[in-house]
Structures
1.
Amino acid sequence: MTYSKTATENLLAVNADEPELFLLEIYHPDQPARIYVCRDSVDFVGFGHTWKAFQFDFNFPNDQDREASVASISFVNIGGSPINDGMGNDFTLSGWIDAADGGRGVKVRVIQTFRSDPFIELDLTFDLESINVDQDKVTGQLRFNQSAFNNHAVARFFTPEWAPGVF
């Protein structure tokens, strides 16, 4: 993996000059509206979008042996902070999830960058699952391509019923 000069300096520094900036693109493949937020106190303009400053917590996927990697995400839902979906509509996050088939099929793209040097350091896309919405928070689990777990590398198995001449 190649890092920018800014990222390399910040990774090697004991006290980094600037914090990393996490950007989230939240979308549903069947809906044109997308949500762009950044974990900061000031909006970020870059990569062709304005990323609205929004409070959220993101934990990277675990790396446990014999276990599917799972990340977690949590958004503040207090006061119904409106988020512009890029098409001129203001939604609360929970309202957008309701409009997106209750969150089924929602994807979350996580981008890591730096404000002073907008270069994509990390770009991961997850499936959002196990969504829980209450008055204070919207929480969920992020998994890598869940539909791939149902796909098999072998299209047909050689069994005595299918290929009796082999046995």
2.
Amino acid sequence: MRILTCLGDATSMETWSNTPYFFLNAGKDAGFLDAGWQLDTKVLRYHRLAWNAARTMKRWEMGGFQYSPSFLRRLLAQVQPIEPDIEVISHFPLFPPLRSGVRRTSYYIDATLTQNFNEYGLSGRGGVGRAMAADAVAREREQYEAAELIVCMSRWTARSVIEHYGIAKRKVYVVPPGANLPASVPAGSCVRLGGSLRPVRLGFVGKDWRRKNLKFVLQIADILHARGVQVEIMAAGFDPDAAPSHHLMKAVGFIDKRHELAKFVNFVRSCHFTCLFSNAEAFGLSNRESLRLGVPVLARNVGGISDTMPAGCGHLFDASALPEDVAGTIQSYVQNADQYWAIRTAIEARREEFTWATAVRKLQGIWLGSDYHAYERIKSHA
């Protein structure tokens, strides 16, 4: 028996961008997962206040309650003890904590804590205290050493597990997750496959518009507009009143996939490209959703983004690329629309590659002993 867990309710679409929910359902359908823990982090908010107050009195660093042993023990107390042969697959590197009664643990993670603290700036002033971060990373290493398997969503994360934590290569694997969309999403596009790219529509999806670099996409649009190329930015996921406005951008706000799935699907499929030029990004699930819906991606090669988009599914730009570089690529497709539609048709044909069902089949192979998705093998064939 296998149980999925994360910091929250693994059965809810509201948890961690829907990832545990879609993984759990695909895993159940395939007979790979049996259940998900329903954990409530909100009930520990008063413990958080008390924890921070105690640290203030002792003049210790603030921040990082969710990484503390106290938080993790209290969270685990919400579930019933499990039999020794039951395996827990966790999305969070510190949970369930060692010596907690859970004997078999494996991980499926998008980033290590070292990457989160360094790349996302979560450690230091205004974030997790440096002492707490160092302690959490030390415990994380122990967790990985005791784990049966560590599956990473990208090669970027796998490298960190091996190089930053010294974990044996033999138990580190890479399996990109599927798009967080129901298996029932129909094939085909609401945009006719053919015709002019005038105006060319650039999609942007993300709540954290600063980190995902909306400004860069606006600069691309400005350059195209100055070159006489008709362009529109279609943006979703953030509050339009809290973000920059722009004469070339139409911001539609947050689209709740739980209740507005058709609206979300139509929004993505109405774009010619979706854009992800993040300053930091552990993976970038929006790219998988775009490809699942047949839309090519333009992205920056940072973090784990390269594993979100196989060759032939768009363009991956170097982190040093300028808006002018991206604008030139887009302009070439506007001038040669047939080339664009050929890429889009090819992506439509491989849409099943980006589903959770496909990801689960790969995970099943790992659990059956296959080394096909071992990081060492993937690295040597990259």
3.
Amino acid sequence: MSRKTAAIGEGLVVFLVAFAIRVVGAAITTVTTLNPDSTADAVGFARAAETIAAGLMRGGLVAPGQGYIYDLWGAFLAPFWLLPGPSGFYARLGNAFLGAIAVYNVYCIARAYHSRQAGVLAALPLLLYPSVVAIHSTVLRETIVLFAITTATRLLIVQRRRLPVLSTYTVVAALLYIAYIMRPENAVIYAVAIGTGLLVHGTERSSPTVWPALVTAGITVIGVAIVTGFVREGIDYLARIRNIRAGGRTVYLPEVIPQTLIELLAFSWVGAAYFLYAPFPWMIETIPDLLVGMEGIISIGFTLASPWGIRSMAKQNRPATVGLLVGLLLGIVLYGVGTVNYGTGMRHRQMFIWVIFIFGAVGITEHVRFVWGSRRYFD
């Protein structure tokens, strides 16, 4: 069996295992109350979807009026409520399918830029983390955002040369638009990540005497724009969000609310660490907290291995690597400042932490190869 065939079969196994685990999670979520993520927003989305579907059955389009995102995501979910049978379970199966594709995307990216072992390692946390499976077993919108951005990334940096250019960019644009309307606040993160990648790509292909001046001019313009107000508005927005979310059992550091750019920069690394890895041991109170805390320890391990992965990937595709890294850093800083409880952080960090899993998996594979007896796997 050729390596290409083995890789395809392995990728299919990754997808099927991920989907099977999420189907079990969807079934448990449907018949029990064990999944804490199936309450609050999930109930609101299901109610909106049911209302829209009932309107469609009567021959009209009815907006539930629960709010922009409830009406929007509810419209995406409404077709499941047009089917006979347990509509909520069908919707969770749809999310389970999208979540499994996201896991497969991460596997493909790491495999393409290093090896099958790196692909499997990168996929494992998303495949098995209880918090990720729990989210993918509900009707929450986080799953479609993760699906959209990982699929767009795979098309751009792995399969771009294998598919027609116009078709690829059209699909990528559609996916990023879906991710944007589901979370409009992420638009600046996508724009900066893609823009940085294009800028690095341009510097590699153009005259070295021209581009340094253009890059310097561009950075100067961006810096002036930031200083003249954009960041001021952003800091005010993050402060308001932090104030709103500063409540509940899982809250942390509620008294810390950055009001200036200096305060934001000083707190950014602390906020990012809590956003990515909380709850820490001193914050654990329940069994679910313990499970998510163990995830954080594993994620720290991937983070520590990431520098080697970044170096390895940059040798093959510097624009993609820099774009992913910049998008990751910007995302975790902004969300780290705006997040003040790890219940919310657990949901939101899934949009970014997959990049760490890719970098970390490649870094780990640079130093460790799995063997069984005298046979080496994932060659």
